Request: fold
Amino acid sequence: MRGNKRESEFFTSLAPMKAVTTRHFTDTLCDCGEPDEYISEFLRVHPTAIATNDIIDLIENRKSVADLNIQLLGKEFEHFLRIAKELQCYKIKSINLNCGCPMPKISRKGVGGTLLTELNIMDDIISTLSNKIDIPISVKARIGYKDPKEFDIILDHVMKHRLSAVYVHARIVKGMYDEPANFEYVKISKAALHCHVIANGDVTRAQEAVNTIEETNTDGVMIGRAVISNPWIFRQINELANKAKVFIPAGEDYLGFIEKLQNVSEEFGLTDFQKPRR
Ligand SMILES: Cc1cc2nc3c(=O)[nH]c(=O)nc-3n(C[C@H](O)[C@H](O)[C@H](O)COP(=O)(O)O)c2cc1C
Reply:
């Protein structure tokens, strides 16, 4: 049974993290306490791209009961359409458009965060998918490319579309991860948009997640890196929401998590862990 998790009062989303939030990670995370939904790591859209076996396996065989959004990264609307048509056969919550990836090798190709400098391309992709595909469309975006002053124009473009959710990673693309996330932009997005708005960036503790939702008046919070050091964070957020005792992991819980992750990884054939570079 998938996509049947009861949504909690404080809605939570696991941020997509390429090569981290793979199926073996999310399957292991299930035992610690799940978010309300996941967004898959991005699938690169290009002329010969297809919905890969990994993506189909994630959709069909994952252990999680949380909803799953599939993230696509690219720039040619016709190739988005082709892959989205393949995905239409499966039960997914939305197709999510990546408008935030800052990695130079991605930016150079004019995709990810660079789409924020080519808003007409972003518009074409969203319009094409909205008009021709039955699956809801969501967007994950940063608040600007070089300068947060670009935010107003980005918001104007986003507002034109019928989206199921907008995930706001509250920093600019060029800033990578340097500046702290600025949730004022999340508040503005929530006031302007009619879809779900989810706050993302630098949320590291359960109480902070609850405070962020309350202070920004958003529909939920998306958490990425903090899940790696505290895979129980979603459970803790639910406990706070229910005014229950909050679980505090002990050393043995961490060891147990790492052991499970390793066992699941081996089941998936990932036996060659990369050795750190010297
Ligand atoms: C290793 C790594 C991989 C990432 N991969 C993706 C990705 O595939 N798609 C995406 O939209 N964002 C990706 N991100 C960005 C995260 O989804 C998230 O927006 C960012 O880490 C800020 O949230 P956090 O402070 O809770 O980690 C990645 C981040 C990291 C650290």
